[in-house]
Structure formats: C-alpha cells, structure tokens
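Write out this protein's structure.
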Amino acid sequence: MPRELTYLFDDWLVVTQQLNLRIRSEVPQSWMWGTNHLNETIKRLCYALSDIWYLDGQDGRATRNHIGVVKVTPSTLELVQRTNDLRQRFHLHLLNLKKQQPGLWPETSARLAKRAQAVQGSLEREGLVRLHLKQFSRTVPILHTLPTRIAFNWYSSGRSIKRLSKAEVLQKLEKLGADKTHIRIQYQKVAQLPDAEALAQVQTQAPLIRANVRYETGEREAFNVAMPIFIPTEGGHAFPDIIAPPDAPPTERSRATRSDQKLEDHPFVPSLRVYRYR
C-alpha cells in the first residue's frame, strides 16, 4: 500500500480522535438534526466526524447526511481544519494512485479498514467493511464569523444536463457492447444523425440539503451541506437561530426547468439517458 496514503490516513485517524475527545470534554453548544438531548447530540456529532465507511449492503452511490451546527473554541476549529486538510490531501494522492495504478485501490481500501479496526477496535462488530470515498472526501463546513441564523432546507435541482457530440455518444455505446442487440439498434440510430448534431445526456440528481446563513451585518450566504457546520465562540454568546429542514425532501423540483425544456420528451438513446434537442 502506498506509504503516503497510509501516513495521511493514520494522521487523520489521530486528529479525528483528538477532535472527538475535545468535543466530549468541552460539550459545546450544538444542535444535530433529529436529536432532542445533549448527550445524543454529542454522540451523533462525534459519529458524523468518523463516518467514512461503507455499511454492508450499502449502495455505493449513497451517502449519509449529518446536519448540525456546533459552536466551538478557536483551538477546536483548528482541529477541524486539520481534519479537512488531511481529507483533501488524501483525496488528491488517491486520484494520482488511481491514475497510475488503477487496480491497486480495492486492496488499499481493505488494508486501511484493517488499520482503523486496530485503532478503533469496533469496525468488525459494526459491519464496516471498506472506505467510502465520497464520504471521506467531504469537508466539514467552517464559518469564521458567528451567524445569527442558519436555515436548512431541501434543494432539488432535478436533473443535470451534459452536452455530448454524436461521436461521444457512439463511443459510450461501444463501451456498453455493440454486440448486444438493443445497443446495436441505438448505435445505428445515432450513426444516422448529422455529424454536427449535439445531444444531451440527462442525469437525475438526488435532493440535497442547503444551509442559508445570515449574519448580524445583514450579509447572507448559502451552500450545500452534508456535515455539521462549525462556528466560532468568538463574536458573541448567543447560539444562532436554527431552522431545521423538513423530514423528507420535496416530491417535486424546487427550481423551474431551464435547458431541459429544449429536449424531446423521450430519450433518443435510452441506455445512456441521451436526448435530442427539439
């Protein structure tokens, strides 16, 4: 296993354990979505900071949200920033590893799980099997100015649309296997199009939670959030007003349709979710 990844992961384990111990000893003002008692809030918060593993049977595309707000001292904020830096450095080194040695990652992931098990001692009992890269690469939001209000809400952009050329669609179909009857039929349909025709690949996006933050100055900012937001104790004693998101995401999109209005109603290449423009 590449040494640099090992060292970064070990450092992250150590710093994260230090952060969890600090939180349990300081018991900071905090709020976690779905909890009503302080002890449970602190427990959920510490779990969120260490939640980087696949669970048995988990869909690899799915990630777990940990929505919360934590007010901590400057020294604790520094620990949070260190965990973020280590996550980012690990992620960059991993991208290089996958590019240079693409077949090495599965073995590396399994060995990292064993290293963590030796440190934490509970991974096997909890059914944790390997590193979840999407969750590990997420950074913990840090606000350096104390906000007065944080409102959480579901956000559904509905669909992402990627413009593709005819040649790119044909190439993707070839990778799916042009020897398969249904793929060959779609390949022939695309091949008959003009070479200059642009197509659109549509991907349905899962609903996200966004944090809308307001400061005493009247300034505002908004960002997608999946991890607890850490805020400073400096600047005031009051905890910001928190507006929790609804229990479930909306069943309809929260934004008006835009470019997808220009697409045909039915996919031209169903296997790739590719549409023609009207």
